[in-house]
Amino acid sequence: MFAPVYLDHNATTPLHPEVLEAMLPYLREQYGNASSRHEYGRAARRAVDEARQQVAAATGAHATEVVFTSGGSESNNLFLKGAAASLRPGLLAVSAVEHPCIARPAEQLARQGWEVATLAVDGEGRVEQGAYAELLARRPALVSVMLANNETGVLQDVAALAQAARPTGAWFHSDAVQVLGKLELDFRALNGAGVHALSVSSHKIGGPKGAAALVLDKRVELQPLIAGGGQERNLRSGTENVPAIVGFGAACALAARNVKEYRRRLADLRQQLEAGLHHQGARIFGAGAERLPNTSYFAFPGVDGETLVGYLDRAGFAVASGAACSSANPEPSRVLMAMGVAPELARGAVRVSLGATSTAAQIEEFLGVLKGTLERLTSLTAMAS
Amino acid sequence: MKLPIYLDYSATTPVDPRVAEKMIPFLVEKFGNPASRSHSYGWEAEAAVEEAREQVAALVNADPKEIVWTSGATESNNLAIKGAANFYAGKGKHIITVKTEHKAVLDTVREMERQGFSATYLDVQENGLIDLEVLKAAIRPDTVLVSVMFVNNEIGVVQPIAEIGEICREKGIIFHVDAAQATGKVDIDLDKLKVDLMSFSAHKTYGPKGIGALYIRRKPRVRLEAQMHGGGHERGFRSGTLATHQIVGMGEAFRLAKEEMVEENKRIAALRDKLLKGLSDMEAVYVNGDLEHRVAHNLNMSFAYVEGESLLMAIKDVAVSSGSACTSASLEPSYVLRALGREDELAHSSIRFSIGRFTTEEEVDFVVKLLHSKVGKLRELSPLWDMFKEGIDLNTVQWAAH
């Protein structure tokens, strides 16, 4: 069967074969409920405990700081709503480029008496220092700024932001879903700087969908989003998703082992990609900032992103025109709007995100197809006008 | 015969091998994010999600548009109760549920109490079933939500859902049913039942862990406040990337349940009856919960004059539980059995046997024999058993205080 070249690793990643091997026994003979006390249950519990160690090791956390959830969205919801529920309503600050699973819960909290401040970003997508300093003077109770943006890949200097927020006593959270596996992640160091929680997810790092974690400083008091059997130290009830948790653990073990080499490899591939894009006249968003090594978000002036992505799909390349969750949304990217990109140019946005299966040959081929497609689109436009 | 024998199907079931085979391609080559709209990886995943939604809806005779994916029945219960209570809070702030519900319902209702709702926890009769008159009497003008489980997880009794539905609909009260233990075991026809919200789990019906669903009625339309916000997946009811392989697994598991439940339940009923008959030979054993209004899969028995923990240790070749898995870490006697009026000793000496698709007759024979031998041995060591055999009524004994 014809399989398109997959260049959308920020949306989700193919499962690593070793992860599948780790999971299979738990989809077959090791089916116990981790809360059961008999041998089937104890075997499941041991597997969950081991995965917790693996997630902790890959994130630089202690195993007791890892709370398993069903996904990155849940981790983000759990932190924001859970922390808010244990505090008196006050000031909550989130950056203007957060994923909807931070932005929407923040709106929800606004309806419950919280004042929500949106932190402006500069033209490269980084939180503006001046605006941030002003915010801190107003003593926020909660701050959430993502480590890396899912669309642009732009990194925030979260350690510095958290450090600056320390005197306010705010709980500081960071969505690290796009960082895990691509860059080294060290919760201990970030925690030392004043970061209290990180969200990480399995399916962005070659693990299965359905598992994620909130890495949480135990001093933070959270109310659970999901009540019931009291699993995950009462922070997240529900029967543990043992196969997915085991897969997440295995993916974390691989990530921890490979991240240094992987990061270099991705950076080389992206350099090859962006040299070609640049040559063809692309405007690359956030290129002036530190970015994830795998992400390239760009537009060609006068070329509609949706259209280009459609052509590329038919030519055998799976890329994204925006974040997967809001791909159906015809509005230009919120992230690019926050960066002050003109709406006409933002409508041209295409995201290529590289991953473990990406190769130099694929990128060469992609650049060739892109060139042909752009020429075709330009001549069509010329004909139309 | 593989030891320990698994008789804890109410805690979780093995994934049916046919289900696992369906799931694996969606872990490997069909790995797309169903929310990706710009390439075939996404479309393929989305199509699989929608097919599974039809399969789940078909088992319970619902419209696929009425099915919302969640991470499991616990999340479904939380979404249903918090979502409906909050949405309809303007109409009233009283919730009715039952003392024998699963923790996922009880703890959620307790949380609503902390948020200013009031709640009534209905008693059950000695057989574990609720008395409809007691329910009617508990309804107040400000009652907005009733939550009653279909099948109890510890004693397997089937509550009169159709009748409760009539009562609630007549009064305009939202009716939620936790059906985690019901799918594949009892017929569920949501076209007939006047149920507004129903929670489902995959891993109690030979599907994978980590996936469940909530049925949300469209006619008459029931509205909910979402509990998980973000990308707006599941028509805004529940944001978060859909775990395609798990959803495909749940769909296939429910498809198999629909196809095979009639035959399977006959076979399981025969095994349960064999187990019951085999254990009833012993003196001073009691079945907990109604035997008639009960799923075929469950047998919950108390073995008087035997300490439950010691019994569990003695029969470790059989994987069973003394309560639900979620509360099994605590040594408290089961709150479900206490709600039936069982005194602590009997509640303490109870065992839940839950039988399923892969249970064999040979295994049941083994368990009967093992129980006879181990219960006999433990009783030999029990002074209470000696007194009982001497005809002393233990309830009249004045125990010395220590």
TrEMBL record, chain B:
HAMAP family: Cys_desulf_IscS
Protein name: Cysteine desulfurase IscS
UniProt subcellular location: Cytoplasm
Enzyme class: transferase
Functional note: Master enzyme that delivers sulfur to a number of partners involved in Fe-S cluster assembly, tRNA modification or cofactor biosynthesis. Catalyzes the removal of elemental sulfur atoms from cysteine to produce alanine. Functions as a sulfur delivery protein for Fe-S cluster synthesis onto IscU, an Fe-S scaffold assembly protein, as well as other S acceptor proteins.
Residue numbers binding pyridoxal 5'-phosphate: 73-74, 153, 181, 201-203, 241
Residues with the N6-(pyridoxal phosphate)lysine modification: 204
Organism field: Azospira oryzae
Residues that coordinate or bind [2Fe-2S] cluster: 326
Active site per UniProt: 326
Cofactor(s), names only, from the UniProt record: pyridoxal 5'-phosphate
Reactions the enzyme catalyzes: (sulfur carrier)-H + L-cysteine = (sulfur carrier)-SH + L-alanine
Signal peptide: none
Family indicated by similarity: Belongs to the class-V pyridoxal-phosphate-dependent aminotransferase family. NifS/IscS subfamily.
Keyword terms: 2Fe-2S, Cytoplasm, Iron, Iron-sulfur, Metal-binding, Pyridoxal phosphate, Transferase
Summary of subunit composition and partner proteins: Homodimer. Forms a heterotetramer with IscU, interacts with other sulfur acceptors.
EC number: 2.8.1.7
Keyword Iron-sulfur appears in the UniProt entry: yes
The keyword Metal-binding is assigned to this record: yes
Residues in Aminotransferase class V domain copies: 5-365
Gene name, Swiss-Prot/TrEMBL: iscS
Pathway info: Cofactor biosynthesis; iron-sulfur cluster biosynthesis
A UniProt-annotated Pfam family: Aminotran_5
